[in-house]
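Example record for the data management plan.
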Amino acid sequence: MTEIDTLMAGDDALLEQLQQRGPMNFARAYEVMERFGLDGLVVTDPLNVFHMLGYWPQIATTRLGQPPTTFAILSRDQRQAPGIVTSHFIYYYTFVDGGPRERLQSYLYIDAGDAGDERQQAPYPGLFADRGAAPQTEVEQRREQRTAGALAIEPAHADAGGALVRALKAMGLWTGTVGYDHPLIRSIAERHERPGTLVPADNILRFIRIIKSPLEIALMRRGAQGNTAAVGAVIEAVGAGANYRDLRRLFAVEAAKRGNRAVFMTIDRVSSELPTKDAVRDGQTLFLDGVSHFQNYHGDYARTVFVGEPTAAARRLSSAIVEGWKAIREQLRPGLSYRDITAMGMETLRKLGVAEQVGFGPHSVGMMHTDEPGVEGGDFFVKDNLILEENMVLSVDCPSLETGIGGSIHIEDLMLITADGAVPIHDIGDHVTTV
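Corresponding structural encoding:
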């Protein structure tokens, strides 16, 4: 069995869990909804739909920029199963392939749009009808049976707006306070004169996502391990003359080999993919910072490479940064603030007599590279001084912010915050490598 086969051996079990339910930490979701006075959540952003249901809406991939057509609903009343509102076509053609999801309320519709009522309408005659010329395939049987089962409970509605209104009423959310993530949801509610209150919920949803469920932690480990291995494979290809663009392309290939999807790789502080001539030099110090994801759960990993003999300044500063990150890792635990973490790294540098600027910047990682709530900043995201909690996954960026030292330096790992400390979710290995 190859290294990749070993890495992929556990994927089926993870995917089977996603077929049953969304990865969301539902206990956390109920607690956060209560904290913010919400009776429920209605979401349509693909990331939020996936988090709640384990399903990434296809239109988000095929029709970027168009208004959304799939909605997921969660009531604070735990007796209510999550709900999905989507088209009959998409439900048949993509959603049911993702698994049975038995604890789910489905509200299907025929056409996108909102005529302002809740009319029901049978699917178009002949749509996916069995012509009997050959036995149905397993896929055809699965799609027909699951779609027919959903329609037997709740007949299809004429349009998306009517189906969403029907879902909110059936789930007890037509009145009260509901969080939402897209202006289309507000428009539908106003068109149908919903008497309840609507609250923008983007930051509230981030408060849910920072505390991972057991399934999310498993997905994070899987994504991080694949990402770490992909970065490691790129490091093996680093040498004088290696082109940055080629190294970036190699990262995408190596991530794909391991079942991950590449998001970006920053090389020697260069993130743009447009330069064509940037290449590694003999004697250079450079970092590689790779981000890829498995089923939307991200790895984030950076290492520093000496190409031959580094400058004395680069060797000294890289050693100090390694010590700073080690000191932070050993002290991570619930109750620390982001500012505490930065101060720990800076204090280590001070003790070592290092005056150079280093970031030591913490951020939560999950369904995004930086996935955490912020503070009010006039519609901008402004970083908050968050307090660590158990089951957060934390990165602390440790880049040198100096130039003129012979290159660039950065190290980064992902740590799971436990009840009384923190553990890495991937192999740590060496932070600095010489090639």
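Summary line stored alongside the record: The longest strand covers residues 285-294.
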